[in-house]
Every structure is written in structure tokens, then in C-alpha cells.
Write a structure and sequence with these properties.
Blueprint: H1 8-19, H2 28-41, H3 49-64
Helix pairs in contact: 1-3, 2-3
Length: 67
């Protein structure tokens, strides 16, 4: 089952890619799930800086999106 585990960095990349299609299918649970993911992963000191930077970028894009 370890092959199926997704790293935090992979999840951050997938989230960033998902923002591009938010125009076509606005899925509000994605936003709340992403915020939960970010608060869980990015609050840890051992989280890589690249993951925190990518997650912050995604969060800013989501906050700037006109609903």
C-alpha cells in the first residue's frame, strides 16, 4: 500500500493543477478540503519550504477567485 501513498508535495502539485480548472466546475468542497490539508501539513515544522510555498500560492489563487 505504500505505493499508493501520495506525498505532501504531490498533493500540493495536484491542488495547484486543480485551480486551473476551477472555472469549469466550481467545487466548493475542494476549497475547504484544501484549507484543511494546508492547515494540517503546513503547520508542521518539518514540512518542506517548497510545499508551503506552493500551498500558499494555491490558497491565494483560491481567495482571489470570484465566486
Amino acid at each position: 500500500c505504500t505505493d499508493e501513498m501520495v506525498t505532501s508535495e504531490e498533493l500540493a502539485i495536484l491542488s495547484e493543477e486543480a485551480v486551473l480548472s476551477i472555472n469549469y466546475h466550481l467545487y466548493l468542497p475542494f476549497i475547504s478540503q484544501f484549507i484543511q490539508f494546508m492547515s494540517t501539513k503546513c503547520s508542521k515544522k518539518k514540512t518542506e519550504k517548497s510545499v508551503v510555498t506552493r500551498c500558499t500560492s494555491v490558497l491565494l489563487k483560491l481567495m482571489a477567485y470570484p465566486l
